[in-house]
Design goal:
The structure is a homodimer of 232-residue chains. Chain A has 232 residues and is of the alpha+beta class. Helices cover 23% and strands 37% of the residues of chain A. In chain A, a hairpin with a 2-residue loop joins strand 4 and strand 5 (82-88).
C-alpha cells in the first residue's frame, strides 16, 4: 500500500490529463548498480525542469533517547560517497548529531511534464560525519552576500527581536557595500557528510502506483550495494 | 545563521529578479495566537498558487533506540488539534510509532510569485496517536481507484517482482471495471494524528534572510501556545 509514498493521489486536482478511473503500475528503469548514479540522473532532471528548490531536502535527526526532529536544508555538494550539508554548529540538529551521529534525508521532486504529473522521492539513511571547513571552502565562497551576512549575525534558533536584528543586519550590509568586502566564515559554520547505508528511490506518475527500488550498502564506504524492488 | 532553513540562496539561479548583492530581513506578519491559524493561511496559499503537491510533507519517526527515518506523505486532514496521516500499519514507520509514538513533520512550499521567490516551511513536532478507521471514512472514500487498489495489493516495503505485481494489479483493475465496483478498505490501513507540542514557521524570499516564529504548546490539547521569534 502506497500511502507512505502516496504523493500522486491528488493528480486529478493538479493538472494531470489522466482520467480518475485509470490505473497502472509505474516502473523505474535502472540498469546500474550504484544508487549515486540514479540519484545524479534524477537530481539533474529536477534541476532541468526548473523547480524552485531542486536542491532542497528534508533532514531528520534524533536525540539519543529517541526524539525525532526534521527541517529542510540544501544539498551543498554531492561526493562519490555522500551528501554534504552546511549549518550552524550551535543548532539543535548539531547537538543531536553530536550525541547521535545518524541522519535521514528525503528529497521530493514533484513536477508536471508533457501533460503528466511526476513524483520522485529519494530517501537516504546513514551516518553523519563532520567535515573540516577547509574541505568545503568553495561552498562558502559561492554563498551570496546575504547568506554570508546571515551566517555571521544569526545564532540559529535563539530568540531574537526583529527590529534589533534588522539594525544589525543593516549595519553589516552597509559596511559590506561601503568597504566593498564580504564577511568571512565564522567558526560556528559546520559541514556534515551523510554517508548512506540505505538509499531508496520512489517513482509515481499520474494514476500509476509507485515503484520503489531499495539499495542496501554492504561495505562502509558506500561503494557496494544490494538492490531490490519493494512495494509502494 | 540560516543554513538550516537556507532554502533561498539559489534564488539568483532560479528566477528571482533580485540582484545578488541585495540583502534584507524577511518578516512574518501574524497577529493571532494559534499556530493552526497561520498554518491554514499558508497551506491555503500553497494550494492557490498551483503547487504540484501542496499537501506533501516529510514525516520523520525514529526507533526507540534512536535511529531516524523519514519519508514524504500527504496531509489527509487538518483537525483543530492535529495533522491526520494515512499509511500501511505493517510499514517501518508504523513499527517505529508503535514503540516510540513521536513524529516530526516538515512542509516546504517554494514558489514564484510576482517576480519573487518565496520559501515557506512549517515544522511540527508532537506525539502520534492512532485513530480508528471509522473516524476517517471520508479520507478512504475520496481516494481514487488506483489508490484503493494499491492499498489492497501492496504490502508496503516488502520485496516484490514487478511483473507479478503488474499481473495482480491488472486483475484487480479489470475486475473493478467489469463489476463496476471499488475495493474496500483493508484492515492494515491505519490513520494517525500528530498532535503538536511545537510548531515553527519559516519565511524567506529573494535575498532576504529568513524569519522564524516558534510556538510551544503549554497544554496537552494543542490549544494554548507561547510564541517567540527566533534567528534563522
Amino acid at each position: 500500500m502506497g500511502q507512505e509514498n502516496g504523493l500522486n493521489d491528488k493528480n486529478a486536482q493538479n493538472g494531470s490529463d489522466k482520467a480518475e478511473t485509470e490505473s497502472g503500475l509505474a516502473r523505474i528503469e535502472f540498469s546500474g548498480s550504484n544508487p549515486f548514479q540514479l540519484f545524479r540522473e534524477w537530481h539533474g532532471e529536477a534541476r532541468e525542469v526548473n523547480l524552485v528548490s531542486p536542491d532542497a531536502l528534508c533532514f531528520s535527526t534524533c536525540s539519543k533517547d529517541g526524539v525525532p526532529s526534521s527541517r529542510h536544508m540544501l544539498l551543498r555538494r554531492l561526493d562519490d560517497d555522500g551528501f554534504v550539508l552546511m549549518t550552524d554548529g550551535r543548532s539543535r540538529k548539531s547537538n543531536e548529531i553530536a550525541e547521535n551521529p545518524l541522519g535521514s534525508l528525503a528529497f521530493l521532486w514533484s513536477f508536471r511534464k508533457d501533460g503528466s504529473i511526476i513524483n520522485r522521492q529519494v530517501r537516504i539513511d546513514g551516518r553523519v560525519e563532520d567535515l573540516p571547513q577547509s574541505s568545503c571552502q568553495e561552498i562558502w565562497e559561492r554563498e551570496p552576500l546575504y547568506c554570508k551576512i546571515r551566517a555571521n549575525i544569526c545564532d540559529q534558533g535563539r530568540p531574537v527581536d526583529w527590529e534589533d536584528h534588522k539594525r544589525i543586519h543593516d549595519s553589516w550590509y552597509e559596511e559590506c557595500l561601503r568597504e566593498n568586502t564580504v564577511p568571512t566564515i565564522p567558526d560556528h559554520v559546520v559541514y556534515y557528510k551523510v554517508i548512506p547505508t540505505f538509499m531508496e528511490f520512489y517513482l509515481a506518475h499520474d494514476n500509476f502506483i509507485g515503484d520503489r527500488l531499495a539499495f542496501h550498502c554492504t561495505d562502509k564506504d558506500a561503494k557496494v550495494w544490494k538492490m531490490g524492488r519493494i512495494a509502494a
